[in-house]
Amino acid sequence: MVQPPRHSGPIVSGIVSGEELLDWRRRQLSLGGHAVDLDWLLDLGGGVGWQPLQALRLHPQRPVQLQRDLAQLEQLWREHLRSAAPLQYLVGICPWRDLELQVAPGVLIPRQETELLVELALAGLDPRAALRWADLGTGSGCLAVALARGLPRSQGLAVDLSPDALIQAEANLARAQVDDRVQLRQGSWWEPLRDAWGHWDLVVSNPPYIPTAVWEQLEPVVRQHEPALALDGGDDGLSAIRQLAAGAAQALAPGGWLLLEHHHDQSEAVLSLLSRGGLVDVEAHRDLEGQWRFARGRRPQATEPPV
Ligand code: GLN
To answer: What's the pLDDT tens digit per position in 212-248?
Structure first.
């Protein structure tokens, strides 16, 4: 089951002067860690964003309203330094695109590189169309929430093998008020889509794709805390992607799209898996950092000759 954030006692807000806050910040940094992470905690856990924080340097006497008092923030910071637990889990939220998602141990923290997948998925689709879409390996539900908002007349399915992930996805769909348009289903990849086999207009996935040997070398903040189920893609990182590519031509509706995220060096291999799986218009796309991060392809229309 999902562990609640370790410091889930009542949140006590507080008022301090700018000077007190800046002093506190210096003391915390002397314990270790990175300023960028502490400032993230101040923003998402304390409600003091980067800009107001800078303004305090000019106006140290100004009072600052904190969403959590300094003792609570310090407890979270010390826990992060002690255990390398991601601050997103400790605070229980993660900003992603224009959303604020709930996250907890057991679910992958949404990554910035995944944000662009939503634009790619929606490109060329009429937002007024009534489509049938699915997000396989939904995790926090980040992609499912964004697709539901971008396709308000469509019905979606958010699938995950992990019950912990489905709990978070359910909460995030409800927070975004799109839960009437997205169903949740537990299961592995295509399996839960069988009842509309051949009728899926759009299927997206950010599957586990990190080769096991690379995963074993990741920093403790990822490897020791985030679910291996969401990250470890087997020996070459492609075991989930192989299954996704193999089922697509039967599961998708004629003309329907499959869109996947993959590791920075898997573009060629994934394009070839999609083509061999019978998809056409197979192409690669870059992420926000310029890495070849996405692959997509569509099932041919019944009238199109096979390639
Ligand atoms: N992009 C993630 C990372 O590098 C991996 C996500 C995934 O395997 N789907 O941490």
So the answer is: 999 999 999 999 999 999 999 999 999 999 999 999 9
Q: What CATH number does domain 97-298 carry, 3.30.420.40, 3.40.50.300, 3.40.50.150, 1.20.210.10?
A: 3.40.50.150
Residues 6+ apart with CB under 8 A from 268: none
Partners of 295 in the beta sheet? 260, 284
Domain range list for the chain: 15-83, 97-298
175 Cβ contact list (under 8 Å, min separation 6): 100, 101, 102
Ligand 1 center to residue 261 CA distance, Å? Answer: 9
Helix, strand, or coil (residue 86): coil
Hunting for tokens 């096991």 — which residue is that?
212
- In ligand 1, which atom is closest to the CA atom of 232? 8
Q: How far is the CA of 295 from the centre of ligand 1 (A)?
A: 15
Residue whose Cα lies nearest atom 5 of ligand 1: it is 231
pTM: 0.92
